[in-house]
């Protein structure tokens, strides 16, 4: 088995499922088959049904016997509301690599994209330079786009390259998020600042709150006008609002060809999963509290990005 001390980064994958036939389990298996050596994979089972938990334990053991560095973290939270913030925090604490990457079970890319990502993590020296944290851009596909992508994926072909944002086929992609929840950061630095805020329940805005704190520690550019405003998930056409600011942290990664896709799925029906109204209200309160504060200058010489370049190709 590969020596776990040689993994450059830990990929944290939270999930909860009620049955082994669910889409999430299929996508987990595909993801495990795709991620290359150099990564540790930590599956955080946040309260799945016992049959699912046993199944995940079995596939973890099988992958380990095949030499993959993968571990399971099992939370006794079946009777509590699912929490991405909680699951991501538990995964980060369990990680044994110096860098952690938060990865939804619906994200995917070819193996060579993850290999580019490993190279990028090493080039920016994130294991020792926490100021170089970044986001991996994620293209949210339509149902048609997901079918198209998976057809090419099975043939080990990149359906299209995301280095030029203005060339995206709109019938196949809803939108591109550069400042995504796929945050890549120094593990010790993340734990020192408390990780994700577990006051955010279910799904929605917990990633933006973490990006807000990280960006206050390590600013990449002057904040835009109306920084606390949520401009929506559509294309960024002006440097305004927090989404435009956080998108700067994914710009370099996109240029390296490291964009992931989010595979389409029907809207989840679990009670309490989507809490966008409550969570974005909480996010705005946090941002408005901090907006008058001067950001730290602990960027350690990190290159500043001109926000105008972000808009040139949208």
Automatic annotation (TrEMBL):
It comes from the Bacteria. Signal peptide: none annotated. GO terms for molecular function: glycosyltransferase activity. Keywords: Glycosyltransferase, Transferase. Transmembrane segments: none annotated. The keyword Plastid does not apply. Residues 10-279 form the Glycosyltransferase 2-like prokaryotic type domain. Belongs to the glycosyltransferase 2 family. This is Predicted glycosyltransferase involved in capsule biosynthesis. It comes from Halomonas caseinilytica.
């Amino acid at each position: 088995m590969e020596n776990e001390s040689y993994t450059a980064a830990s990929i944290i994958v939270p999930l909860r499922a009620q049955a082994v036939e669910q889409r999430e389990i299929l996508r987990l298996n595909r993801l495990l088959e795709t991620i290359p050596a150099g990564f540790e994979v930590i599956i955080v089972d946040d309260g799945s049904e016992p049959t699912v938990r046993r199944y995940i334990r079995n596939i973890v053991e099988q992958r380990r016997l095949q030499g993959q560095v993968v571990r399971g973290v099992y939370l006794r939270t079946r009777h509590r509301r699912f929490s991405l913030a909680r699951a991501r925090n538990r995964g980060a604490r369990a990680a044994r690599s110096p860098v952690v990457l938060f990865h939804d079970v619906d994200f995917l890319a070819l193996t060579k994209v993850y290999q580019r990502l490993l190279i990028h993590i090493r080039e920016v020296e994130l294991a020792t330079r926490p100021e170089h944290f970044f986001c991996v851009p994620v293209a949210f596909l339509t149902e048609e786009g997901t079918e198209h992508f998976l057809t090419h994926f099975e043939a080990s072909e990149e359906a299209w390259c995301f280095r030029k944002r203005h060339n995206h086929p709109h019938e196949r992609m809803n939108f591109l998020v550069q400042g995504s929840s796929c945050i890549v950061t120094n593990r010790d630095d993340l734990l020192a600042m408390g990780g994700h805020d577990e006051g955010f329940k279910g799904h929605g805005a917990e990633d933006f709150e973490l990006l807000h704190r990280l960006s206050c520690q390590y600013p990449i550019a002057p904040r835009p006008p109306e920084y606390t405003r949520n401009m929506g998930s559509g294309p960024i056409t002006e440097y305004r609002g927090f989404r435009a600011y956080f998108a700067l942290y994914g710009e370099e990664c996109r240029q390296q060809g490291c964009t992931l896709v989010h595979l389409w799925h029907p809207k989840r029906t679990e009670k309490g999963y989507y809490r966008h109204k409550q969570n974005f209200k909480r996010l705005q309160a946090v941002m408005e509290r901090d907006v008058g504060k001067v950001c730290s200058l602990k960027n350690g010489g990190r290159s500043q990005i001109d926000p105008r370049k972000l808009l040139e190709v949208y």
